[in-house]
């Protein structure tokens, strides 16, 4: 890639701009902090002068709430010290350079064909297979942590449909490469293709959808839907003793670019199904463990220098996304060698304007990352992130060697040998349930373990090792995902996030100690703010009930306005 960087030394690939609100934000933070500290001081003095036990308990609870709120507010200011906006110029990457572009491995994670329907996986896979990128340089890996033959069947059907869908998109300049989104939008009617072509491809899609959904409804893949000997051989691995918690490794190469072509005779991206081995006696570390298994398996089969991680319901909305990523990786004007990952905001489809469950999380996914981007970069949010493979093996100046040379990011792989017995045996071996025993996987190498919020911990520790992140937020959403649509799913998600963030806060990697030491006070505070999110419940609960109860019992809680007018006014206005 060094040759490409030198080639673009005269062409701007991206432009960062400091937010115009930076200076006003800093002035406001100083004024507000002064008023808040003064108020807390008076609160402390008042608390120490109380004589009755009842008033002391009530005032102590309110003081605790105010301290928590102040700490959360203080850490919030770190996002406002240097927010920046970026613009990319992918048009400056010439088409003559396509043969030299780095290869990309795409990881799509799923775990349950009933909670995460195979058709969601199919649409996500087809959307990334349709990237405006050399097809021979794209490999799509689907991690099925549930080990379901239904997911494999869906992917086999997707591969067959993709042979028609990908040429259709190229020939008709279709931007929405996710079939479900395309047919549901008005763009299908505005397409340059003829109505008969659209109806034909739509009929093919609906037919595939019926077959996949019927299989899910029946809970099995019928023999009549298995059309080839290779397919039959693949499904024979699902024996009577095969369960989602206890099963051997299954790796199936569904599409191989060197031999599989679309209906126009053009190369198709690689498509590989991976179900890592699971045993009840071994820890599997959930999504983090699945991603680490994919890192190892992909290293054996393709070993692309760039990795994209996606949830199964997060489809590509812009086929130009990989080219936007290259605007940072290939830009010689920034320390691109230290750019470990490029994170896109998580955006959701189907949320009404009221967003009654607050699932869009704009501050978490779109606002706060702008502030982090001006420092060392945003946190990883679990999907929509392009990683440099090298970033998973130690810092930019301190390489951590894997236990096998074949797993090294610098290892050269012969993609044509992907079907050889030696290669496949090795790929199966690195996906076994006890492979990570007595290795550094999950601790010094790969996605990090120790919390249910493995995404934020991983990016946090990568930055502590010296890597930087980039927040890429184009006007056109790069990816769209599904948000929880009922209260149970929302609460379950919130519980998992809260547990994971508190695990980080009270671990040896706490942002307020370990983080400040290695990435500075501002970045330490940004991650600290995220980990403090669960304790919002403390002041919210106290202020929701205590003032009303005190009023009913005739207990005075707050001082007269004239006493602290100067201190309270800036806080009230702010």
From TrEMBL:
Gene3D superfamilies: Spore Coat Polysaccharide Biosynthesis Protein SpsA, Chain A. The chain crosses the membrane at residues 21-41, 61-79, 509-527, 533-552. It comes from Cannabis sativa. GO terms for cellular component: endomembrane system; membrane. The active site is at residues 145, 455. GO terms for molecular function: cellulose synthase (UDP-forming) activity. InterPro entries: Cellulose_synth (IPR005150), Nucleotide-diphossugar_trans (IPR029044). Mn(2+) binds at residues 287, 311. This is Cellulose synthase-like protein G3.
């Amino acid at each position: 890639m060094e040759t490409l960087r030198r080639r673009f030394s005269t062409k701007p690939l991206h432009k960062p701009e400091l937010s115009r609100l930076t200076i006003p934000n800093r002035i406001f933070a100083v004024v507000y902090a002064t008023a808040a500290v003064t108020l807390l001081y008076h609160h402390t003095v008042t608390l120490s002068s109380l004589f009755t036990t009842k008033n002391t308990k009530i005032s102590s609870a309110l003081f605790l709430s105010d301290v928590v709120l102040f700490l959360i507010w203080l850490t919030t200011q770190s996002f406002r010290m240097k927010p920046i906006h970026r613009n990319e110029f992918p048009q400056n990457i010439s088409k003559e350079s396509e043969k030299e572009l780095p290869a990309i491995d795409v990881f799509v994670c799923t775990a349950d064909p009933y909670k995460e329907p195979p058709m969601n996986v199919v649409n996500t896979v087809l959307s990334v297979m349709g990237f405006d990128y050399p097809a021979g340089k794209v490999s799509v890996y689907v991690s099925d942590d549930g080990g379901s033959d239904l997911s494999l069947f869906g992917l086999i059907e997707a591969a067959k449909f993709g042979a028609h869908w990908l040429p259709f998109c190229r020939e008709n300049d279709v931007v929405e490469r996710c079939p479900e989104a395309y047919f549901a939008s008005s763009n299908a009617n505005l397409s340059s293709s003829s109505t008969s072509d659209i109806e034909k491809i739509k009929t093919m899609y609906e037919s595939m959808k019926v077959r996949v959904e019927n299989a899910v409804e029946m809970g099995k893949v019928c023999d009549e839907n298995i059309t080839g000997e290779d397919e039959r051989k693949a499904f024979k691995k699902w024996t009577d003793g095969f369960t989602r918690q206890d099963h051997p490794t299954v790796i199936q190469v569904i599409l191989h670019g060197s031999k599989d072509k679309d209906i126009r005779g053009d190369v198709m991206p690689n498509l590989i199904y991976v179900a890592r081995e699971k045993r009840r006696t071994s820890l599997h570390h959930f999504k983090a463990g699945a991603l680490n298994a994919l890192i190892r398996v992909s290293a054996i089969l393709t070993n692309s220098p760039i990795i994209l991680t996606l949830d199964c319901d997060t489809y590509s909305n812009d086929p130009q996304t990989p080219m936007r990523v290259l605007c940072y990786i290939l830009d010689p004007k920034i320390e691109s060698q230290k750019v470990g990952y490029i994170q896109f905001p998580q955006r959701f489809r189907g949320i009404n304007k009221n967003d009654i469950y607050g699932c869009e999380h704009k501050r978490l996914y779109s606002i706060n990352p702008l502030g982090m981007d001006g420092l060392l970069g945003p946190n990883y949010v679990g999907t929509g992130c392009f990683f440099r493979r090298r970033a998973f093996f130690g810092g930019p100046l301190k390489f951590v060697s894997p236990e096998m040379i074949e797993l090294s990011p610098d290892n050269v792989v012969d993609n044509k040998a992907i079907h050889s017995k030696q290669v496949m045996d090795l790929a199966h071996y690195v996906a076994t349930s006890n492979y990570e025993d007595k290795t550094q996987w999950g601790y010094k190498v790969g996605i990090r373990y120790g919390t249910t919020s493995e995404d934020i911990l991983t990016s946090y520790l990568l930055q502590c090792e010296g890597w930087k992140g980039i927040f890429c937020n184009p006007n056109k959403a790069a990816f769209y995902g599904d948000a929880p649509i009922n209260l149970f799913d929302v609460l379950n998600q919130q519980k998992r996030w809260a547990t994971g963030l508190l695990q980080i806060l009270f671990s040896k990697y706490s942002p307020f100690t370990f983080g400040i030491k290695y990435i500075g006070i501002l970045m330490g505070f940004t991650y600290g703010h995220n980990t403090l999110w669960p304790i919002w419940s403390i002041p919210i609960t106290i202020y929701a009930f205590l003032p009303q109860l005190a009023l009913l019992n005739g207990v005075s809680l707050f001082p007269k306005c004239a006493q602290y007018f100067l201190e309270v006014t800036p806080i009230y206005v702010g």
